Amino acid sequence: MTDVARLSAIGMSELIRRRELSPTECTVAVLDRMAEWAPALNPFVDFDPEGALIQARAATDVMRHGAEIGPLHGVPVTVKSNQAVRGFSTRRGSRLTSTEPAPADAPLVSRLRRAGAIVVGTTTMTEQGWSATGDSPLTGATHNPWMFGRTAGGSSSGAAALAGAGCGPLHVGTDGAGSIRIPAHFCGAVGFKPTYGRVPYVPVPNNANLSHAGPITRSVRDAALMTAVMSGPHKRDSISLPGTMSPEVESGDLAGIRIAFSPDLGHARVDPEVARIVQRALSAFTHAGAVVEPVSPSWGPDGPAIIRDMWGLDVLGFLPGDTVRESLMDPGLVACIRDFEHFSAIEGINATGRRLAYAAAVNAWFPDDDWDVIVTPSASVTAFPVGRLQPEAWPQHPWDWISWADFSYPFNLSHGPAISVPCGLSAEGLPVGLQIAGPRLGDAIVLRVAAAFLEAQPFNEWPNPPGDDVRVGISVDETTEPTREAAA
């Protein structure tokens, strides 16, 4: 049954349709593996095995009566805790949020349920999604499945930890500056941030249109299917895109595809081992028939100043207002707020203008220079110890984690699709991710290139099970004072 828990969603669905496995058997297998791993990972805010089994038995009964079933019928899924799930609190990693259960599902959750998915729980995240590490004042540290004591990344911490450990095939994440792709990189998972608006995000965050919702999986084709199920316009998200995305990923070689490779976007510091692993992985693209050429895009060096200003604007909405509230918050988030609390309206307007010009430059660069996609490292480092915002050997700062994450946010700023796929393991046995990104609305080509990469260079490694002596536990504070919507 361990093998069942590690099946892809497509593989699980095919077995269910052929009646070789029931939804109940699949759900039990995933719940058993989650029970084995959860004490070490600390990935859940709410874990509801009893509710999941009720859903699974109902899905099994549907099969017995021969009713039409959806593409995810009987497939377990988790949801990041900034998306409302009926009956669970939407805590967003913060002790200042309400413990009241959500009265209704977020649109993407409703769509997953309509497709037949079994919701088993909500997953951990950093406070309001403000950072890309795995620590939260609400739930503590979420650990990396490949090495206890190392971060799972964030802000979609629990989702990536579960995906990397093989605890079910489908996990919802969100991404405001890398919060799907960075934890996927750290945990050996596939993390896809679709084009902005492809998946409706309700309520729409007040954060300069940075946040995207998307899947964390172990398969590119699973990511495409899950995105397709969640995609389409919604009346409560005025920026959601019309139409739905195809669940199919074009197969075959990459003949005629032009891939730009940038090891540093013209400015980023990268750990030498990460750089070597990503560089070696490029041969998979050429073996698949693509042309790969090194580039240093002109827009790259403009990104750091823009994202820091935009991030400062985003977090101002969480200004604590008094020392009691501040004492309940992540100190890094508070430090970031304090650095920007005197940011003027004119400075904010100018920052937004520079962001819009940057997005235009990124999206024009692909067709102007005749590139289909750009490949980079997913992040500059492998997973470092929990409790830190930066690796020990990197410049220290009270809040700036962006210094080691310069590859992801350009495609939040530009609203383009980007995916992280695992491309190897470090000498310590920690995963390294490779990012494939494209222009706005270029989801299909990004997924095609990513699928071809993993076909040419499969990542079939799994972390070892946790030892009996490794137990983190879950402790959720019951403070009920609500705050504002999440940043990422």
TrEMBL record:
Single annotated GO MF: catalytic activity
Domain Amidase: 26-298, 350-447
PANTHER family listed in its UniProt record: GLUTAMYL-TRNA(GLN) AMIDOTRANSFERASE SUBUNIT A, MITOCHONDRIAL (PTHR11895:SF7), TRANSAMIDASE (PTHR11895)
Pfam families: Amidase (PF01425)
The name this protein goes by in its record: Unannotated protein
Organism encoding this protein: freshwater metagenome
